[in-house]
Amino acid sequence: MSEPKIQIVARGAQTKLEPNTFVHPNGQVLVSWNTSRDGSGEEYQDQSTVNIQEPLTLYAQWGHRVEWNPMGGTPVPQRLVKSGHEIGNLPISQKEGFDLDGWYTRQTGGTKLTENEPIAQDRTFYAHWKGMSWEKLYPENSIIYYFGGSATQPTLPMNLFENKPQGNYQL
C-alpha cells in the first residue's frame, strides 16, 4: 500500500496538484480532494490547478466507479460517486428509433435506477429502451407506422401500404 505524498508549493503560484498515487485498501477510487475531512469544505479535482495563499491540507474523498452500458445507445462516460452518496442526475443516451426507458440493474429485467440511489460499491447500470411511437418517428403524418420493441428484440418501421394493390390512398 502506498502513502499519500506531501506536495510543497510556492505561495501565490498557480500549481497543478500532483496525481494521486495512493491505493485505497478497500479498492475505492479517489473522487476528489476536500479541505474538510467530511467533504463539506472546498473541493478540488485530482491534478487540478490551485493558487495556495496559506498552508492547506487536503483530504481524499473516496468512492466508487459507476459504469453505464448503453445497450446500443450513445456512449455515456463513467462517473465517480462518493461512497454512500446518491447517484444524482441520471445520464442521457440516445438510440435511433427508441426512447430511453431508464437505467436498470440488469441487462433485462432488474430494478429501475433513481437519482437518489446510494452507491456503496462499483456498479454497472444498463439502458432499457422502448420503441418510439410513429408520431415521434414520422411527425409529418407519414404512411409509415412503427411497432414498439425492446432492446433485445428491436422492431423496424413498416410501410402500411406495402404489398397493397396500386392506387390512390387517402389518409
Overall SS class: mainly beta
Global geometry = elongated
Low-confidence parts: 159-171
| Helical run tally | 1
Helicity level, as a percent range?
under 10%
Our Rg estimate from Cα atoms comes to 25 Å
Mean pLDDT: 81
Q: List how many beta strands DSSP finds.
A: 10
Assembly state = single chain
Could you tell me the strand content as a percent range?
25-35%
What is the ordering of alpha helices and beta strands?
Answer: EEEEEEEEHEE
Q: How would you sum up the major sheet?
A: 6 strands, mixed
Our measurement of the CA-to-CA distance between the termini, rounded to an integer number of angstroms, reads 72 Å
Outline of this structure?
The chain has 171 residues and is mainly β.
Description:
The protein has a domain at 14-63. It has one helix at residues 134-137; strands spanning 14-16, 29-34, 43-44, 49-51, 59-69, 79-82, 98-104, 123-131, 144-146, 157-159. The protein has one helix and ten strands, in the order E-E-E-E-E-E-E-E-H-E-E. It is 2% helix and 30% strand. The strands form three sheets. Strands 2, 3, 5, 6, 7 and 8 form a six-stranded mixed β-sheet that branches. It is an all-beta fold. A hairpin with an 8-residue loop joins strand 2 (29-34) and strand 3.
